Amino acid sequence: MMNTEPAVSKPGDKIVNICMVTYNRVNFTKAAIGALVTHTAHPHVLTVVDNGSGDETPEYLKKLHDKGIINNLILLRENVGIARASNLAWLQEPDAEYYLKLDNDIAVEKAGWLEAMVEVAEAFPEAGMVGYSFEEESYPVEVVRGYRIRRKHGTLGGACVLIPRRVFEKLGFWCEDYGLYGEEDCDYGFRVANAGLWNIYLEDETIGLHLPGGRAAMLDAATFFSKKGPENMQEEEYRRWKDNERAKAKGKGGMFETNVRRYCADRESLRYSTGWRKTAAGGAGGLGWKWARPLAVKAGNLPKVVAFMPKSVDGCGYYRMALPAEHLRAGYPEFCVRMVTGVDFHVTLAADGIIFQRQLAPAYLEYMKARQKLGRAVGYELDDNFDEIPPHNPNFPMTRLKDGLYAILRQANFCVFSTSGLREYYQRKLSLDGDRCHVLPNYIDAQAYGQRPVGRTDGEIRIGYAGSITHERDFQLCVPALKNLAKQHPGRLKLVVLGWTRELAARAGLLAIMPVEIHDEAPILEYAKKLTDLDLDIGLAPLEDNEFNRCKSNIKLLEYGSAGMAVVASDVVPYRFIQTGVQGLLARNPVEWEKHLDQLIQDHELRRRLAINLNALVREKYDISSHVQEWAELFRKVLRGNG
Questions:
Q1: Beta strand segments in 430-552, E
Q2: pLDDT digit string, tens, across residues 462-476
């Protein structure tokens, strides 16, 4: 039994104009509208435009309009295509806060579906389109600002999508160039991304059915034709017609490719008007609308799109790319920040500026050149000296790729280095223009570590080391001191290792020194809490003095300081930002390693003072929230063409 009671709006409600285009297939339309009415409580109006159906659809729609279930009904005499009909529906409620395109073969099955869409659109000002996915492919869930969403770097399927009025004001209507059945939803999604906005699917992928089979047809990536599915079998002729129309629009040289090139060459071309004009009489179905060519309009006031493209977001990819991107996105609305791993056609074509990290294959050099031909500023971020990786380091084979690195650094519009030593090395080696070379140090998110009481007065002393397998040889610098101290303080010391396996610890000889507590490497987003929860008194930061390590950053001491421990570190360039005896202790040889560790083991007040001082230094000078403006200033500069 269909519920015929309309949703009651209250003052302050943000009305949604739910727009549906129908064309024959009346049984689908009945199922879609029946489900919509049953499961929709959020204030809305239902607007239906029929594209000249030849079955009983018009009569069915008239009855619903008479009952007040359909608020706006336009019955066209001929099929004008999905985009034009959808725009006509959009025009019927110019004051609605949201427009929703709902295909007439979508049957929603759960209450609260529309409330959830509006809530996400409200929570994310950068949302361009918010939709439910009826695709066969599932996209990963991420938690952003407490919401579980599926951001898609490509475009959304247009079966059930919500567009806020703020986005309409920037981008306008569906493009009407695609004929009877085309790629207007893909076109709009590309414009959304190119305008610096997000395409978002909600988490729930079982909100309803895409009739007749439950999900949309799977498409062949090369031909754009659908693979075998329920619609192919039950409506073979209709499906074949749709596939042919899509292939014409999406194939090489088709309308979609033409439009994409135009959008990328001129971002202000993203805004579309519609050809529909109000008339005194006649027009569409005698209801006072007539279609002519759309007026040309320009999209203005668009943010600059910046794409961060690390090889991964673990380790250096997090500190050098993901963390600054997150804070740049939150604090600087003049930029639309995209995080992409790998090359994504939609995002990088839309970006005004692109910065790669750890991408060394020849294909990336060609990709960089192609983007530069479009007038994009393309940069490269480097945080290690790839020329000087020691032979014993597991990453030594990467030195074979250095010719590719040289070519990329020379080609880049701008280069970003983590330390001044690294910049000077490559600037000198490759004769790079100094104006193209920038130093942006590593910073940390101090808030992720919380506040930990420091200065244990008695009991077990927990000595910690956090590092990867690449630092096995570095760690040997402090092993003799640990052996001697274990004998001098029997039963009082415990070594805590984060990021090594038990096999590696055994190979390094640690298991024979003192009791050892071993923890697997933590995912990067859990690392800060994990390190803090280890409750360490002393942190070890051994580092060999060689050309490779001299170019490294001070990130380990920043992590240790944030987690509230006293540190003993090698007296090498990266760690000389601290004053020995004030924020930590620097050791030049095995004798000093043993001396400094023994001091901290015996003097809890010294441990406490050094830990507090280092924590204060890190929070004052190395918190990303106080330095993200350096990234903003860099992008302002390079996007002005002064890279």
A1: 437-439, 461-466, 493-498, 516-519, 538-541
A2: 999 998 888 888 999
Picking from 437, 436, 445, 397, the residue whose alpha carbon sits closest to that of residue 421 is 437
Q: What local confidence, expressed as pLDDT, does residue 61 receive?
A: 97
> Tell me: the pLDDT tens digits for 30-45?
999 999 999 999 999 9
Question: What proportion of the chain, given as a percentage, has pLDDT over 90?
Answer: 60
Beta partners for 210? Answer: 106, 214
**What's the pLDDT score for residue 467?**
86
Q: How many Å apart are CA 197 and CA 191, to the nearest integer?
A: 9
Among 136, 134, 156, smallest CA distance to 210 is for 134
SS3 (DSSP) at 563: coil
User: How far lies 501's CA from each of 315, 456, 554, in Å?
Assistant: 18, 28, 24
Burial 462-472 (b: 16+ CB within 10 A, else e): bbbbbbeeebb
* Of residues 205, 3, 14, 4, the one with CA closest to residue 108: 205
pLDDT for residue 297: 80
pLDDT in tens, 415-445: 999 999 999 999 999 999 999 999 999 999 9
CA distances from 572 to 441, 519, 576, 577, 622 (A): 17, 27, 6, 10, 19
Rg of the chain, C-alpha, whole Å: 30
pLDDT at 201: 97
For 271, the 3-state DSSP assignment is: coil
Instruction: Tell me how far CA of residue 47 lies from CA of 6, 23, 105, 631, in angstroms.
Output: 13, 14, 15, 46
Q: What is d(CA 120, CA 360) in angstroms, rounded to the nearest whole number?
A: 38
The beta strands (E) that lie in 543-640 are given as: 566-570, 585-587
Q: Is the predicted pLDDT of residue 64 greater than 50, yes or no?
A: yes
| Collapsed DSSP state (helix, strand, coil) of residue 353 | strand
Strand ranges (E), 459-503: 461-466, 493-498
Tokens at 361, concatenated? 């294959």
Distance, in Å, from the CA atom of 269 to the CA atom of 225, rounded to the nearest integer, reads: 29
Residue 639: other Cβ atoms inside 10 A:
19
User: Identity (one letter) of the amino acid at 527?
Assistant: Y
pLDDT digits 0-9 by tens, 595-609: 999 999 999 999 999
CA dist 292 and 274 (Å) reads: 8
Rounded distance, CA 232 to CA 339, Å?
A: 37
Residue 433 in 3-state DSSP?
Answer: coil
The one-letter amino acid code at 128 reads G
Report residue 516 CA to chain centroid gap.
39
Distance CA 409, CA 414 (A): 8
The pLDDT tens digits of the residues spanning 560-573 come to: 999 999 999 999 99
